[in-house]
Every structure is written in C-alpha cells, then in structure tokens.
Amino acid sequence: VQLVESGGGLVRPGVSLRLSCVASGFGDSTYCMTWWRQAPGKEREGVAGIDSDGSTSYPSRVKGRFTTSKDNARNTLYLQMDSLQPEDTAMYYCAAADDLVCRLDPTVVNYWGQGTQVTVS
User: Fold this and answer.
1) Pick from 60, 57, 61: nearest CA to 69
2) DSSP notation for 87-110
3) Residue 112: per-residue pLDDT
4) In this structure, are residues 4 and 21 in contact, taking their beta carbons and an 8 Å threshold?
5) 59-94 exposure pattern, b = at least 16 Cβ within 10 A, e = fewer
6) How far apart are CA 58 and CA 117, in angstroms?
7) What's the rounded mean pLDDT across residues 29-36?
8) How far apart are CA 96 and CA 6, in angstroms?
9) pLDDT reading at 28 higher than 70
C-alpha cells in the first residue's frame, strides 16, 4: 500500500492550492481517506475526511475553505485549499483508515503518505 502526495509549494496569502494523493495497493478495499497537516512544533491535526460513499467532514478551522474529493477511477484523493493564510503553513499528509465512521483520529490511521510541504508567505 502506498500513498503519494503532490501539489505543495510556496504561495502568497489569499491564493488557492490543490493537493493530490495517489493511492496504490488497496485492491478492492474501501477506506476512509483523510488529510492532515503538521506545522513545526505542533501536533498533527486532521483537516478533511471522505468516506467510501463520498461523504465529507471538516473541522471548523478549515470548513468553508478546504474541500476534499476523490476520483476512484484514478485512485486519487484531492484537497482544494482556498484563501490560504500563513497559519496554513505545514506539511500536509494524506492517510487511509479502515474506519467505517471515518473519524479524524490519528490512532485509527492504517497508512500515511510521506507528505507535501505547503508554505504561505
């Protein structure tokens, strides 16, 4: 199983960025897919989740600015981030969990990607 993120970079405040995560090795399994971020010196925090049926969830700190979606045919997960602010600067990770509830809980994650850096400055 492998998750590979891409799309990070250095952007100005107020602009948008879309991250991608290509998943491989899952076979016919269905997983809860989530996005996380971790800034230096801070704990990893969940920013979006999407379950096998396509239902999404977001914490209040990003709701209305971040949108996650997936293309099952391409085995790709996306995170659209709008109105980026300096406090959004972090390493962003995608993750997969065999969790029917699809919680933003790092303890239920089975697989992590290697991350992609987003810097807003």
Assistant:
1) 57
2) GG-EEEEEEEE--TT--S-GGG--
3) 97
4) yes
5) eeebeebbbbebeeeeebbbbebeebeeebbbbbbb
6) 20
7) 89
8) 16
9) no
Our CA angle for 108, 4, 103, nearest 5°, is 20
- Please write the tens of the pLDDT for every residue from 103-121: 999 999 999 999 999 999 9
Amino acid at 110: N
The tokens for 28 are 């016919």
Q: How far apart are CA 20 and CA 94, in angstroms?
A: 9
Q: Quick check: 79 and 48 in contact, CB under 8 A?
A: yes
Between these two residues, 1 and 84, which has the higher pLDDT value?
A: 84
Place of tokens 């899952």: 26
pLDDT in tens, 59-78: 999 999 999 999 999 999 99
